[in-house]
Amino acid sequence: MSSQFNAGQDRAHAQAATEQFVDSAKDTASTAHDKAHDALGHSQGQAQQSKEENATFLQQTAESAANMAQGALDGVKNTLGMGEQKK
């Protein structure tokens, strides 16, 4: 019973940590988006280039954050014996 309780606590802690990490990544992406928006005040050519670069950066940041969060969640599941069994 105690190990199930501890596993539940560990899972809840891992979920909270993952959510905190994702929120942090969203904040980073939002900041990058805001900077991209500010860049639109410059010349049209510079703004377009900056917009494309920031869009690429945002996509890479989101993908990286999702991969890291999934990896962390999988690691916790495996540690708790809750991971998928590979055949």
TrEMBL record:
Residues 1-63 are annotated as: Disordered. InterPro entries: LEA1/2/D7/KIN2. PANTHER family: LATE EMBRYOGENESIS ABUNDANT PROTEIN (LEA) FAMILY PROTEIN (PTHR34191). This is Late embryogenesis abundant protein 1-like. It comes from Salvia splendens. The lineage of its organism: Eukaryota, Viridiplantae, Streptophyta, Embryophyta, Tracheophyta.
